[in-house]
Amino acid sequence: MKTDTLIEVKNAFKQWRANRSSSAEKTPQQLRNLAVSLLTQYSSAKITTALRISGANLKLWRNEITTEPPEFIELAPAASAEPAVNHHLDISLQLNNDSRVRLSGNISPVLLTALVEGLTL
After folding, report:
1. What is the pTM of this model?
2. 8 Å CB contact between 48 and 54
3. DSSP codes joined into one string, 39-58
4. Which one of 46, 95, 112, 114 is most buried, by most CB atoms within 10 A?
């Protein structure tokens, strides 16, 4: 199975070389990504020999991929700088359809902020 993957990538490089417009054309990003993905299964020497690429290029491509920031970064909620003081809340809302909503009780500033943000969506 590992050999199939290497052969598939090797064939993709072979096809690209046969169809590129000039020998100075940069290697497409998709092929670079495929070559770098092989590093989890093969040595760089085996990859560079099979794909007929330089070790310097493979190293450069690997560094480009690993230094790109992820598309999504999950952040932990910030700790509230306010003391954990609860405030008494008593809110009555009348909606456009004549429905009424009443919120009453002790509530922290963080929860109050979440409620207000939820109402504005």
Report:
1. 0.53
2. yes
3. GGTS-HHHHHHHHT--HHHH
4. 112
Distance between CA 115 and CA 49 in Å, rounded? 60
Q: Distance between CA 105 and CA 90 in Å, rounded?
A: 7
**CA angle, corner 21, sides to 8 and 4, nearest 5?**
5
Residue range 57-100, pLDDT digits in tens? 999 999 887 665 556 666 666 665 555 566 677 878 776 777 77
- Bridge-based pairing of strands 100-107 and 87-94 is antiparallel
Bridge partner list, 91: 103
